[in-house]
Specification:
The structure is a homodimer.
Chain A (H helix, E strand, L loop, with lengths): L1 E5 L3 E5 L4 E5 L12 E5 L2 H8 L4 E3 L15 H7 L5 E6 L2 E8 L2 E9 L1 H11 L20 H18 L5 E4 L14 E2 L3 H13 L4
Parallel strand pairs in A: 1-4, 4-5, 6-9, 9-10
Antiparallel strand pairs in A: 1-2, 2-3, 6-7, 7-8
């Protein structure tokens, strides 16, 4: 069974054994002839896929009854997978979603590492630094590089920790954040596990 | 006396009565013939001004002994102005600096409103929203617009409040943040008051 999670920058495939990414800008979807179960949050890709009969959209099978209707399908499907968790999905955007006793509590969206770095660089060449993830969150900064890293990371990390729930890190940059959330679980394949669960619950929706 | 605070996007002048801005990209500094006391954090402008004899840089007169040497002169001069405060200077970048009992505690840099909005829009057209400053900070979001506003504003505001010091808002967007820091004092002319104090302490350094 081939699964695909389509985001703003890549097609992320999982065939049950390995996972791999293809760039949204260069990947030719007609190269795939087998059945693909997918979710897609990329508005430029959604329309193209609708007319491909071997690409099966899982969104209609996701239970939105306890969520809000405009919640991205990737966030919806992952949130529904947990009873108690803060899920931090660190991709081009970082989405944070909070589940408590099986009820969706809400969430928020923060810029991902790449785009936030560009954002600082666009403000001034003096703010063009790589972020340091070895930051001491209890110590505000005493040099410019740390001032950027602290600004991007410290308020965000404190916000996520304040929910006092198990923290799950996923997405391409999930592992980077492990240093700041030492107690967190990293699961790169979480989205595929959640997609598989939707398929199992609904039967293969082909 | 003409004062000028030069940032990444504008020359901000104050003549003791009115203040006004000129764009960095279009302003001709040779239009000013009188003496100007200035501070400048814009690397593209600093070199040009050095050879203009009527433009007097205040940076050499700022006491950096309790600060760090790469701290922007605007942040240095404002921090030195207070004994106990968190200063939030909301311009193209938002700088936050903490003074406690006259000692600089450190600070951090966060993207300003305009650049952060661009940052979200660059990630996806679905994230292209104006921020809502009428946000309830105790309630994580249940729709996409609030998810962006919460992500940008809530962790930041909580961080600033956590220092438990008087909050001073300044910079072009300072007044926008007043809704989120109800107890804060807004002072658009703070930088000029701080510059004036440096001049008064040192005599007119012409």
């Amino acid at each position: 069974m081939l699964l695909c999670d389509i985001g703003n920058t890549s097609f992320h495939f999982y065939d049950g054994v390995t996972h791999y990414k293809e760039s949204v800008s260069t990947f030719d979807i007609d190269n795939v002839t087998q059945t693909v179960y997918y979710i897609c949050v990329n508005p430029n890709v959604i329309d193209v896929l609708t007319c491909k009969t071997n690409w099966i959209d899982l969104k209609p099978f996701v239970d939105y009854s306890k969520l809000y209707s405009t919640l991205g399908v990737d966030r919806a499907i992952i949130s529904s997978y947990f009873e108690n968790a803060v899920v931090v999905d660190a991709g081009s955007a970082i989405t944070v979603d909070v589940m408590r006793q099986g009820e969706y509590q809400g969430g928020f969206i923060y810029p991902g590492v790449y785009h936030m770095r560009q954002c600082y660089a666009n403000i001034s060449s003096k703010l063009d630094y790589e972020f340091s993830f070895e930051l001491d969150l209890d110590k505000i900064a005493f040099n410019s590089k740390d001032a950027i890293s602290y600004g991007y990371l410290a308020p965000f990390v404190k916000e996520v920790k304040a929910y006092d729930l198990p923290i799950i890190l996923t997405g391409g940059d999930g592992v980077k954040f492990k240093q700041l959330f030492k107690e967190a679980r990293v699961d790169e394949l979480l989205i595929f596990k959640a997609m598989k669960k939707v398929i199992d619950v609904n039967g293969s929706p082909a």
